[in-house]
User: Fold this.
Amino acid sequence: MSDYTPSEMMTIAAARALRNEDICFVGIGAPSAACNLARLTHAPGITLIYESGTLATKPRVLPLSIGDGELCDTALTTVSVPEMFRYWLQGGRITVGFLGGAQIDRYANLNTTVVGPYDKPKTRLPGGGGAPEIAISCGEIFIIMKQAPRSFAAKLDFVTSLGHGEGGDHRQRLGVKTKGPTRLVTDLCIFEPDAETKEMTITSIHPGVTRDVIQENTGWPVRYAASVAETTPPTADELAVLRELHARTAAEHGKAA
Amino acid sequence: MSDYTPSEMMTIAAARALRNEDICFVGIGAPSAACNLARLTHAPGITLIYESGTLATKPRVLPLSIGDGELCDTALTTVSVPEMFRYWLQGGRITVGFLGGAQIDRYANLNTTVVGPYDKPKTRLPGGGGAPEIAISCGEIFIIMKQAPRSFAAKLDFVTSLGHGEGGDHRQRLGVKTKGPTRLVTDLCIFEPDAETKEMTITSIHPGVTRDVIQENTGWPVRYAASVAETTPPTADELAVLRELHARTAAEHGKAA
Amino acid sequence: MAEFLSLAQAMEATMRDGDTVAMEGFTHLIPHAAGHEVVRQRRKGLTLIRMTPDIVYDQLIGMGCAEKVVFSWGGNPGVGSLHRFRDAYENGWPNKITIEEHSHAAMANAYEAGAANLPCAILRGYIGADLPKVNPNIRHITCPFTGETLAAVPSIRPDVAVVHAQRADREGNVLIEGILGVQKEAVLAAKRALVTIEEVVDDFGPRSLNAVILPHWTVTAIACVPGGAHPSYAQGYYKRDNAYYKAWDKISRDRDGFLAWMQANVIAGGPQDFAKYARRLSAAAE
Amino acid sequence: MAEFLSLAQAMEATMRDGDTVAMEGFTHLIPHAAGHEVVRQRRKGLTLIRMTPDIVYDQLIGMGCAEKVVFSWGGNPGVGSLHRFRDAYENGWPNKITIEEHSHAAMANAYEAGAANLPCAILRGYIGADLPKVNPNIRHITCPFTGETLAAVPSIRPDVAVVHAQRADREGNVLIEGILGVQKEAVLAAKRALVTIEEVVDDFGPRSLNAVILPHWTVTAIACVPGGAHPSYAQGYYKRDNAYYKAWDKISRDRDGFLAWMQANVIAGGPQDFAKYARRLSAAAE
Assistant:
């Protein structure tokens, strides 16, 4: 199966990391596609939670917003937003949180707040939303982001949410007990934190992607794990289910999400 | 209408103090009878709330427990107990809280915890339940208690819930902004706090009750307001409604509440 | 992930000697059948937490299962004292127990904070009251914005929560309705949760979009015990057995009478007994 | 005690220049019609609080109603930036605005603490994040039991909360269902509350025993504005108008285009316009 886009490869590689037992805090966009793809393929028992309060939701089509009626209609139940953040997120009930961002650094800290100084921003981004506490309260964090030299930045202008901080045992020193980012899936490759330094290190390269292309799209000198795999290309089934999901979504919303 | 019991007089006198606009936090027993009597007579719009979480309940019969199904069946809605104590009681949404107790002192502090030392009690009572925060969070407090020399005590063994403390501006000095006990209705008379000292002072004596009987049943030298009224005896309508309520309750539960 | 088990198996899977246990229920849905199972399995050294300890805790205390009770109102509602609780606390029979006493507001907040995975709860509470003088677990913090002093209590984090609910679906999701008490918070605050239920349904069917449901992955074990709240009640199933509450006063007054009653009705009994208690009261519930 | 009023009267009765205002809604039930009324009544100097300021706040900011925005995520969901918000913040057009920025968890807790009448909320939050460096309203307390440091934020206590809900009964009790957001908390935290609704019903009829209802004595004014959440949605009534959210990006990019649109669609319009917007989307909602 060779006819797929880098974006499809990214979504599918992210979906594969999810387990049937996961309780997953889902963001809109690529995370939502990956989580629902996992649910429709190898992880039918996965529990999807959106910060709008929908618990164990099974949307037929991808939501366009974090609070689409479809999420509520197909949920086990819907709780208030304070309850969502108190009992479910801070409560430690979430095994995997899915984040993206405008900028990421080599320790998987994320910036979705500002480019430039906070008080005089070059670009004012939407802000952290749920991310600062998703980053510390979920059992582990998966990140899904397209690679580009400006978004994979040597230094963040603002740390919206903690990844591995300055690396090493920085999370533990801050009193955080969760694992933090364990997987960063891009349109080019998969990063995982080095066991010691916690620097995000490439463990798998998507088919047809070269190391030069990866470096051109990363703002720091990338490191590779001792053994680097080639990502298994999308299977026919994975691609078919993902495309059907996008087609259903397009039919419902008039345009693909 | 002369054929009524002191207990009926007490319940009816307490009911009269409630207003149509009140949002009332109701305890089981005499407070519940008084509040429902008010609702069935002069205050049809009164909102009754029980700490079990039932908001705006309209029980047909008096509940035997704070959490009877009847309270839930006839409520506008029922919230969790944490929400009841956080949003509704501490939230400052209650205009009148109704308390009773095993012991009361002249400043309407109440004891429902122990007689004797806390660690080696002579009598271990049930404890405070909701009272410590009802006493400080409701706009004002009505107390309903039968008078007896041991329960109307010169000194409490334990202050379960704050009344007027040591009197005067003690509540304000503790940072409490609500009025505290504004009315104590007994089977003999009605007390209200003195404007200055906050000592509970008799403002009305039930028909046929003598000052000697009141003093015999009070553990401190009682004080009277400058002008003392005679409590209006129960009207035929008040008595009829109260007795019907008790009769319905007896028919439902097999025995009068 | 909830497992459907017999009550005996569910208890074995969730509660150990020495555990901190919250068997909650606010008049409604009190897990009496589960309490009897604790007695039959002879658990020892339990710390029993409940806002309103009543008959079920009186039974556990009288049978020597408890060493500490954390509570805010202890009594037989509308009837009087808990004689076994008092006998243990005042006379050390069958063993000495200690108490930790709070207000309802503090305990409700402490459960809420436990569900929210916080170490403590803050409330505007206990002002002018004597409990802070006798309970070292009532402390204070200062609001960093207003300077106001607020009461703080440790959050409640039981080893096991035990609650009764109306229904579970085949996946093990649990639906509760009516007077909710602190049961959802107790389950979410606990390491393990045992839920007894009135019935298993294929699915919950049409319901409020905001129904109170515990997802199956918050529950350790589910045991279907129809009538399992008796003499408490289950909204929509059966009514409160007020006569039982009144009768308990006499049964529990005397040590020998209590032991004989427990032998006949609990030790020699089983969860299957509860269905018939509840049946007697169910016609009236309609 | 809730009064049924026209939207114009309800706004006059509840919101004043300089007020701190929470117009809440989490994708669902956003009070757009009420926002337009604020513009028509030319309120000035408002502090606008909302977890997720989107189009309705973009409109208020662009029309010069706001001087401060308190928020945790500001954008046009799934589309991009809020151009009027950015233009005011970055360029001072039509006036300079200041911001106070939090995380969702902090704001949700701050509303919850406001409803609970506490001066602050505590949470395990912001660890390793930069917001505490730029927001002096993020402080810390120490748990008096464990010594853990927890984040603290001031509770949100708006002068006015404005929310949209599905139904009110004749007494003025308000029922909300579906995605609840922080609307109940916003109303209970506020001094005054304006609720717009889809319809008035004689009574709510059969419903969950635990339905989410705001009693009439928690609401100041109710205005019946069918479609009043459009382009947001009302579960059971009409769907979200995704095309409008996309179109807003173009409308709001340019100051003149924005002003012309506001003149034609808001200043010259009225609450009665919302019913027809919603009708277009209601067939699809079934």
In short: The mean pLDDT of chain D is 96. The radius of gyration of chain D is 19 Å.
